[in-house]
Design brief:
Capsular biosynthesis protein; 4 strands; alpha+beta; 4-stranded antiparallel β-sheet; transmembrane helix; protein tyrosine kinase activity; membrane; Alpha-Beta Plaits; elongated; 239 residues; GNVR
C-alpha cells in the first residue's frame, strides 16, 4: 500500500510540474541545437596508413624480431606526434599553428599485433586534414631512419579528399538528444526539490496526511460580494 501511495505521490508531483519539466526539455534542446548547428565548427577527418618494418637482408625473419617490431609500435606512435615531426609538417605546409596544437588534431592508432599504423587527422578544413595526414606520413618516413634503426617504411594508403566530404563532428542529433535527456532529468529533479521544500497545506487531503485524523467539516470561503450583501440585511434587522 505504501509503495502505491508513494508512486501516486510521484506521479502527482510530475503532473503538477509538467510544464516546468517540458519547458526545461525544450530549453536545453534548443540551446544544444543552436550551439551544434550555428556555433560549433564542423570537423572533418582524413586518414592514412603506414607500415613500419625492418629489412632482413635476405635472412629469415625471426619470431623475436617480429616481437621487437611490435613492441616498438608504441614508440613510433609517440614519434609521429613529436615536435621533431610536427615542426617540419608545419613548415612544409605553412600552417599557422604550433606543434602542441597540431598534436591535438592527430590520432595515431594501430590494431593489436599489427605493424600497420593509422594516422588520423581532424581539421575544420577537409582539404587541410588530407594534406596534414599525408604530410605527417611523408615526414615520418623521411625522419625515422635517422631517429631509429628502421629502414623500411611503406605508405599503404594516402588520404584523399572526397567530392562531398561530411564532417565527423559535431554529432548534432546526438547532442540535441543528450541535452533533452539532461533537461528532463533537471526538470524532474527541480520538481521533487520544490515539492520537498513546499510545506504549506493546500487541500483537505494534506491535513489528513499530516494529522492522520479525519475531517469533520469544512468552513467554506466567503467572497467580498457575499459579505456586502449580508451586511445591509443584518443592519436592517437591527434597526
Amino acid at each position: 500500500m505504501e509503495e502505491s501511495i508513494s508512486l501516486l505521490n510521484i506521479l502527482k508531483i510530475i503532473r503538477k510540474w509538467m510544464l516546468l519539466i517540458i519547458s526545461l526539455v525544450f530549453v536545453c534542446s534548443g540551446i544544444s541545437a543552436i550551439i551544434s548547428y550555428y556555433v560549433l565548427p564542423p570537423i572533418y577527418e582524413a586518414e592514412t596508413q603506414i607500415l613500419v618494418n625492418q629489412k632482413t637482408n635476405g635472412q629469415e625473419y625471426a619470431w623475436s624480431q617480429l616481437e621487437t617490431d611490435l613492441q616498438l609500435i608504441d614508440t613510433y606512435n609517440v614519434i609521429i606526434k613529436s615536435p621533431v615531426i610536427l615542426n617540419k609538417v608545419i613548415n612544409k605546409l605553412n600552417l599557422k599553428t604550433t606543434p602542441e596544437s597540431l598534436s591535438g588534431q592527430i590520432y595515431v592508432l594501430n590494431e593489436d599485433n599489427s605493424k600497420v599504423v593509422n594516422i588520423r587527422v581532424e581539421d575544420e578544413s577537409p582539404l587541410q586534414s588530407v594534406e596534414i595526414a599525408n604530410m605527417v606520413a611523408e615526414v615520418f618516413k623521411e625522419e625515422i631512419p635517422t631517429l631509429m634503426n628502421v629502414d623500411n617504411i611503406s605508405i599503404l594508403s594516402v588520404a584523399k579528399l572526397s567530392e562531398n566530404p561530411s564532417p565527423v563532428k559535431p554529432n548534432k542529433l546526438l547532442n540535441v538528444a543528450i541535452a533533452a535527456v539532461i533537461g528532463l532529468m533537471l526538470g524532474i529533479g527541480l520538481a521533487f526539490l520544490f515539492a520537498f521544500l513546499d510545506t504549506t497545506i493546500k487541500t483537505e487531503q494534506d491535513i489528513e496526511e499530516i494529522l492522520a485524523l479525519p475531517i469533520m467539516g469544512i468552513v467554506s470561503s466567503i467572497s467580498e460580494k457575499d459579505l456586502e450583501v449580508s451586511l445591509p440585511s443584518r443592519t436592517t434587522r437591527g434597526n
